[in-house]
Amino acid sequence: MVFSSSISFLVLYIFIAVSFGFPVNSLETKNHQSVNQTFRSAQQLHKLKKMIATRLQQINKPAIKTIQSPDGDIIDCVLNHKQPAFDHPLLKGQKPMDPPESLRRQHQIENTSDHFQIWSLSGESCPDGSIPIRRITEEDMLRAYSINSFGRKFDDPYVHEYVVVSEKNDKFHGGEGTFNVWQPYIENEREFSLAQMWLVAGTSGKDLNSIEIGWQVYPHLYGDYRTRFFIYWTADDYKKTGCYNLVCSGFVQTNKNYAIGGAINQISTYNGVQYSMNLKVLKHNYTGHWWLVAGPGAGTLIGYWPSNLFTHLKSAADEVNFGGEIVNIKTTGSHTSTAMGSGNFPDEGFRKAAYIRNLQVIDGDNNLKPFKNPKYGLTNFFCYSILQGNTNPKWGYHIYFGGHGRGYNCR
């Protein structure tokens, strides 16, 4: 994303105000003298720059190789044992564990499909013993609400809307689904649109544990409007723990071919070619860790969330959810026109609406099972909706979902 110098200066002021406790709404007052003094404060600017540089140094680990992605991302190849995960107090001094043999027999450990993500179009790859990490920049930090909140959800002040299908009232060791990939329209850079799976345990608003994986378009986080593969986790209802991708310590990546947070290369088109990715999280019974499988085809082993990151998810998930979500800021005073899925309603069907197919849960014996008692939920039927697809042996239990946001009935 490119800012003009005047907009950059405004963003910088707001960022300073939030970081140092100045009232942002002073921009709307007549006290321009105070504002101008703040702008001119070289000492405060220097302090902010230093804070950002320190935080970037914490997030961005030393690279043994750097790859320039065609989309403008910088991909750092970081030694496995130097990745952000091992800054976590519970993981310090550890090294990534190899995928258990039982998982290696079921899943690929290398990416066998070409160019799933844009950065791989460069023709470069990370050396063995390292993982690709999308570099966080100063510009990324300046878009954040504050330095410490970058990559986290806990101070997101906006309204979230969703459509979801859930399997509940059991103990689940994971879930799996194949996600149709789109690039939905985003009205405001602070809004996002995503499709994901949630594994949830605990109580919402109190001590919720959640593992979330999917694709999203989120310009506020990434600085562009590309569709990206993402992960998220929390162990305390988004209060202090967890983050997107590898911004904080926690998730341990083991695969050198996928950049979590990297842009997806192949995007579906309306009434045209459809692209999808498989997403799966499963708990390994011996170690207790939650392993991530993602990518085209059957997917590839990416890495794991150590079980000791969590409280309730140490044992099992209470529910498995699939669906879409958007943020509605109401920039114009009415409902946002940010789209969900393809931007079309589910009754338009294949090649037009977004879908998630072969939805399954994983039981305590690590068996995949179809949904038995699906429960549907949505926040605003006139803006975004969800529909169960017709029975199909190849697609299993599946849903269509999405919508275009603001319109005749969505206000």
TrEMBL record:
Protein name: Neprosin PEP catalytic domain-containing protein
Lineage: superkingdom: Eukaryota
Native organism taxonomy: Eukaryota, Viridiplantae, Streptophyta, Embryophyta, Tracheophyta
Coiled-coil ranges (or none): none
InterPro entries: Glutamic_endopeptidase, Neprosin, Neprosin_propep
PANTHER family according to UniProt: CARBOXYL-TERMINAL PEPTIDASE, PROTEIN, PUTATIVE (DUF239)-RELATED-RELATED
Region forming the signal peptide: 1-21
Keywords, in A-Z order: Signal
